[in-house]
Amino acid sequence: MKFARAVRQVFFAVLTGVLLSSAPAYAAEPVEGKDYRRIQPAQLMDTPGKIEVTEFFSYACPHCAQFNPQLTQWAEKLPQGVVFKRVPVLFNRAPWANLARLYYALEVTGDLPALDQAVFTAMHKEGENLADPRALNEWLVKKNVNIQKFNDAYNAFGVRGRVNRGDQMSRDYAIDGVPALAVNGMYLINSELTHEQQLHIAEALIAKSRAAAASASKTKK
Hints:
By secondary structure, the protein is α+β, with helices and mostly antiparallel strands.
């Protein structure tokens, strides 16, 4: 019995070591040039006095679809004073521009919270081509969306303007792949890291931005 117990103890010790060695290795402090890069020049924020986390994404991107549930849950738990926003990218692709219009139109009509994940599911699991306006309308009817209200928003000058502004933002941030997370217009996280690592680094950069803001405030006093 003692021998069997000793064998089990050795087995669990080895197993624990394997699990620990395979777990993501997070640095105590994110490394510039490896975990993130500085955005040059730093970009102005839409909400002065708050820290902004921005996700650049597209409904056409399968990695964005995979990341979305985890990212949404994470964003819902962000501390006070931190704002989460999303910017659909175009990358000079007309279908992606239509999907950007879809995102903003759903935001205008108030249907985004209910349909955001559903759009990803429809495109990547159900084979729907929601970049095509006709297919999109047929799909929205099934989702009990007010089509007239949606199309008014989809074709509105304001939505087109937001699409263009988002496209310009992606250029200013030098976004070359999605999903991509930026913190406070100053830091762009390495998108080749795992989703868990990206979120960990985002939290560290939020803390870094908060500490810098606090230090700047003391200096002014």
